[in-house]
């Protein structure tokens, strides 16, 4: 800090603790006062687990790291605490008490009284024992409903703050490029506009609760070759700029995200953790991001062990620090002694340490962690007796009635009805055959990063902590007069055929057969979906297709129900099932939502965030493809999906009519508007999801045949109509041109109002006029949508 600059501060407290002084002055003073060891101590985390007895957190032993000696580390300080609630099962109140005791110790042990910043996972709800398990992000995408997702994220954030957590490692903004990738369930979908708008809403909700949202994985992780986890990414600069980066750009500009996590992958030989052009040049210098960049777990060490771009730990530290990674997670490996020694002997400039440190301390100051009245005890534990932590057990409820109601709302909006010959909704069936490995399986609704699947599986004697009714349970409540007979048929992935005959017999004797198939979430091959659970082809795991085909051979009508983490080819079921209901790991209330759709209590309104393939082997494929990526006469492989992106049916009917366009020509720096009427012509209330796609017939570089640029949910009573108006800025027609800059070109555009990417209902043509125009990160990112009532016919 410049000693000649006068700073008015409160007498009796250190400058860095004075909230009346600017954050910049406080941080500068603190950095000036710190030794090198105290500086680097703020640049890493320690993986811990809160104590279920209310004691201090204990370092977590991981097979990729050496043991951590907290007594040796804490005198110089500590930057972060890794996953205090997401490491072992712990009662929320006792965990909060344990974390508070540890934070008090950290603050008391270092010279400056700086506590750690605590982070945890919140991909599908706060990943803590007893916390609400919400639907996975792929279900968020299926809702096409940013407002509901924003409300869910705010609730998750409030729960995290209630127990002393500051940062959440979500959302995942990777755009699906290959559905064989195991982490598809963690993504929001295959379209960057959908991912960006839903992901930004999640960020806004989390940040509104005071939680630092962390965007991941920056960037290219989902574009790995052959859908393999951590495989190299082969995307070119144009695909990266136009498909993979826009969701991050939107979430930073409009969501206010305060943290970004790098991707593990390397793109064209450059690991993201070493990419200065990406993490500093684009993220900070161009986009203006001023938060912290945190390493994906072990990513800095991977520069040495997996990527081979560093010879030792100090080299990995210097490479990552120079690129722009501020915090090493989950443990200290490179930013501790190796970094300190390399700075001391001149191999790494101390200025790089100070740059990262300034960002970290700024965030801690803004979170109130440097204030003199900082209290490690969260408000939920006010009045707790420190001598009787056991009395706290059960005091904090992270899965109350309001949470569960919200989880059900999200799940209901996310269920997608793929096909229906009129069999659904079911009309008081007397005998229901409930068949399949997910028919009576509680965890079938949970994703990989839910606490029971991520952590609980390692603690088999511990209760789940939340209620997980099976589909059998909820169907019994939904159809109390029906006789429900269950036959598993086969396992998720065991390939066992021995139970298929029994299942077929059960189906033969029923009025309706519900065949409930899909995935089991897990980690690194322990499941069929999840991190490290990649597949070679999109065929149903194990012998599930054989089971499905055996039931389809019968005369009993078959409803295929999927509880899965990715889309699968369904073979004969596409044409022969009476109906198909798709759900992507819908969370703890998911079976209530599915049962409601089957009975008709819920009118389905979900839409596919990823296409369902017709065959298992035509990957990678996406609706967002250029002309050569679609079916053609020069290849015998047809990538056309069985059900396209954006598809979903309802139990009512909608009529689209009376399209008007305000102008036939608009300047390349202007906008144009389309208006039309949507009317519910069916016999019950329902929700139509109107989607707006842009087709650019002629461009200077190859473009996707179409891409989503807007959408809205329209809720209508029978006979009710709404006038829908989309105002489209010309900026949304921009793309990365031949010179690498984003450009809006003059020429004709086709705008398609559609019920899915394969179902255009109304089409307008507008010509952009004037000069070619270059745009940057300040361009307009959204179509504006309005709805007005229309008089009944």
From TrEMBL:
Keyword Kinase: no
Region feature (Disordered): 774-793
Domain (Fibronectin type III-like) ranges: 688-757
Domain of life: Bacteria
GO biological process, one term: carbohydrate metabolic process
GO terms, molecular function: hydrolase activity, hydrolyzing O-glycosyl compounds
Keywords in alphabetical order: Hydrolase
InterPro entries xref list: Cellulose_deg_GH3, Fn3-like, GH, Glyco_hydro_3_C, Glyco_hydro_3_C_sf, Glyco_hydro_3_N, Glyco_hydro_3_N_sf, Ig-like_fold
Family, similarity comment: Belongs to the glycosyl hydrolase 3 family.
PANTHER family according to UniProt: BETA-GLUCOSIDASE
Name the UniProt record assigns to this protein: Beta-glucosidase
Organism: Streptomyces aurantiacus
Lineage, highest ranks first: Bacteria, Bacillati, Actinomycetota, Actinomycetes, Kitasatosporales
């Amino acid at each position: 800090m410049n000693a000649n600059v006068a700073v008015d501060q409160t007498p009796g407290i250190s400058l860095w603790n004075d909230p009346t002084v600017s954050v910049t002055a406080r941080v500068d003073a603190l950095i000036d006062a710190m030794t090198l060891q105290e500086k680097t101590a703020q640049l890493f985390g320690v993986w811990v687990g809160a104590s279920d007895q209310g004691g201090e957190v204990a370092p977590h032993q991981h097979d990729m790291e050496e043991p951590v000696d907290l007594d040796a580390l804490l005198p110089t300080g500590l930057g972060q605490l890794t996953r205090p609630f997401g490491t072992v099962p712990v009662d929320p109140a006792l965990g909060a008490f344990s974390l508070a005791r540890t934070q008090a110790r950290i603050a008391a042990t270092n010279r400056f009284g700086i506590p750690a910043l605590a982070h945890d996972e919140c991909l599908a709800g706060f990943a803590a024992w007893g916390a609400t398990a919400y639907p996975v992000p792929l279900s968020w995408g299926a809702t096409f409903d940013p407002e509901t997702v924003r409300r869910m994220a705010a609730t998750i954030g409030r729960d995290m703050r209630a127990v002393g957590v500051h940062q959440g490692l979500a959302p995942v903004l990777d755009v699906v490029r290959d559905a064989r990738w195991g982490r598809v369930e963690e993504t929001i979908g295959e379209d960057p506009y959908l991912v960006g708008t839903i992901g930004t809403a999640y960020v806004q909700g989390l940040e509104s609760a005071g939680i630092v949202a962390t965007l991941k994985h920056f960037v290219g992780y989902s574009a790995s070759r052959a859908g393999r986890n951590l495989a190299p990414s082969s995307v070119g600069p144009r695909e990266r700029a136009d498909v993979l980066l826009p969701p991050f750009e939107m979430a930073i500009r409009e969501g206010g995200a305060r943290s970004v996590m790098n991707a593990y992958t390397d793109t064209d030989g450059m690991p993201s953790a070493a990419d200065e052009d990406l993490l500093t040049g684009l993220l900070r210098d161009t986009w203006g991001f001023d938060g912290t960049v945190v390493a994906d777990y072990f990513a800095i060490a991977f520069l040495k062990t997996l990527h081979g771009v560093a010879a030792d730990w100090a080299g990995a530290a210097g490479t990552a620090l120079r690129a722009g990674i501020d915090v090493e997670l989950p443990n200290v490996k490179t930013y501790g002694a190796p970094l300190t020694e390399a700075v001391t002997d001149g191999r790494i400039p101390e200025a790089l340490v100070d740059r990262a440190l300034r960002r970290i301390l700024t965030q801690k100051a803004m979170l109130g962690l440097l204030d003199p009245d900082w209290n490690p005890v969260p408000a939920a534990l006010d009045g707790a007796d420190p001598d009787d932590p056991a009395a706290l057990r059960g005091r904090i409820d992270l899965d109350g009635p309001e949470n569960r109601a919200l989880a059900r709302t999200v799940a209901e909006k996310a269920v997608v009805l793929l096909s229906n010959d009129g069999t659904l909704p079911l009309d008081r069936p007397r005998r229901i055959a409930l068949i399949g490995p997910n028919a009576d399986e509680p965890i079938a609704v949970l994703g990989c990063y839910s606490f029971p699947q991520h952590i609980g599986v390692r603690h088999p004697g511990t209760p789940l902590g939340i209620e997980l009714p099976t589909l059998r349970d909820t169907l019994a409540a939904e159809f109390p007069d029906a006789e429900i007979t269950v036959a598993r048929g086969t396992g998720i992935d065991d390939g066992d055929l021995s139970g298929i005959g029994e299942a077929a017999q059960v189906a033969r004797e029923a009025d309706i057969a519900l065949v409930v198939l899909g995935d089991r979430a897990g980690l690194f091959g322990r499941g069929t979906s999840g991190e490290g659970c990649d597949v070679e082809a999109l065929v149903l795991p194990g012998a599930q297709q054989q089971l499905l085909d055996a039931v389809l051979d019968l005369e009993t009508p078959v409803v295929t129900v999927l509880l899965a983490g990715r889309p699968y080819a369904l073979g004969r079921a596409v044409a022969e099932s009476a109906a198909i209901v798709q759900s992507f790991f819908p969370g703890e209330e998911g079976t209530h939502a599915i049962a409601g759709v089957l009975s008709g209590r819920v009118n389905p309104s979900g839409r596919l965030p990823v296409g369902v393939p017709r065959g298992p082997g035509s990957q990678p494929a996406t609706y967002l493809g250029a002309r050569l990526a679609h079916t053609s006469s020069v290849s015998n492989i047809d990538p056309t999906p069985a059900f396209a992106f954006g598809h979903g049916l309802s139990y009512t009917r909608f009529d689209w009519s009376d399209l008007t366009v305000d102008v036939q020509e608009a300047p390349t720096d202007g906008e144009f508007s389309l208006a039309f009427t949507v009317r519910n012509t069916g016999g019950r209330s329902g929700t139509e999801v109107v989607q707006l796609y842009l087709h650019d017939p002629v461009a200077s570089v190859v473009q996707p045949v179409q891409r989503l640029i807007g959408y809205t949910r329209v809720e209508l009573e029978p006979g009710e109509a709404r006038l829908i108006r989309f105002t489209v800025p010309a900026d949304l027609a921009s793309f990365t041109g031949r010179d690498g800059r984003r450009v809006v070109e003059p020429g004709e555009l086709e705008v398609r109002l559609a019920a899915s990417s394969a179902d255009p209902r109304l089409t307008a043509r507008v010509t952009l006029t004037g000069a070619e125009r270059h745009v940057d990160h300040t361009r307009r990112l959204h179509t504006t949508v309005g709805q007005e009532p229309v008089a009944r016919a």
